[in-house]
């Protein structure tokens, strides 16, 4: 036995023929593949080839987005249409309200005019009745004034002529309202009543009490005659007037609580009197 027999040989082991053949086949296949690839590369260099990539996932997302956009557009259109309908309804309502307001104003004006006309007719009717009342009273007084008795201011006296007409007029207004500045036909103040009463017989008196208290001849209260003007306060500064109607009575537009009333001289004794008839 050799002294080197136990040492392994450093020579490479010999490959088997099958492994060498397999490796040669593999190498040949690789070279063939490279050759084919090279040929394909040359062909590609000679003539470009267009390739289409299909992206199914991206196409689906885009479709969903388009659908959502279409829905949003449709909803916006519906909102616009609804708003347009609301605007049209509001405009129609405003137009109708304007027409109703105009009609209401027209109706109110017509009612006001009718009310004013009715008031005018009523006032005219009251004035006519008052005039008729005055005429009847004056006629009755004239017919019954066939005799007279005179003594003192408190004694019975019967008016005739113009005095009877004045007295009939003021008595016809008894019960009417007292209104400051009133000159009839249904409301009076004291001097307005006296002035209008004497106007019935063609005598124009001043408008206010102060001037009426000096419009005629001053007479004593003990020598009064029906138709004399009574005044309260000083002559030329009187604050109230009335008409003496005989039998110690007078008629005057007293105050808002009593209105036009017939009262005895003792109710409110006058200061003086003037005679214009």
Structure description:
This protein has a domain at 154-275: endopeptidase domain like (from Nostoc punctiforme) (endopeptidase fold (from Nostoc punctiforme), Alpha-Beta Complex), CATH 3.90.1720. Helix content is 52%, strand content 13%. With 277 residues, it is of the alpha+beta class. The chain has helices at 17-46, 56-144, 161-172, 190-199, 209-212, and strands at residues 177-178, 187-188, 217-219, 229-232, 240-246, 249-255, 259-264, 272-275. The N and C termini lie far apart (199 Å). A hairpin with a 3-residue loop joins β6 (249-255) and β7. Residues 30-46 and 142-156 have low confidence and may be disordered. It is rod-shaped, with a radius of gyration of 64 Å. Strands 3-8-4-5-6-7 form a six-stranded antiparallel β-sheet. α3 crosses α4.
Structural class: alpha+beta
CATH topology value of the domain at 154-275 = endopeptidase fold (from Nostoc punctiforme)
Return residue spans where pLDDT drops below 50 for at least 5 consecutive residues: 30-46, 142-156
- On the 0 to 100 scale, the average pLDDT is 77
Strand order of the largest sheet: 3-8-4-5-6-7
CATH class of the domain at 154-275: Alpha Beta
CATH superfamily of the domain at 154-275: endopeptidase domain like (from Nostoc punctiforme)
Taken from the alpha-carbon principal axes, the silhouette is rod-shaped
The SSE string, one letter per element, is: HHHEEHHEEEEEE
The portion of residues forming beta strands comes to 5-15%
Number of helices: 5
**What is the CATH architecture descriptor of the domain at 154-275?**
Alpha-Beta Complex
Share of helical residues: 40-55%
**What is the number of E strands?**
8
Distance between the termini: 199 Å
Largest sheet: 6 strands, antiparallel
Q: For the CA atoms, what is the radius of gyration? A: 64 Å
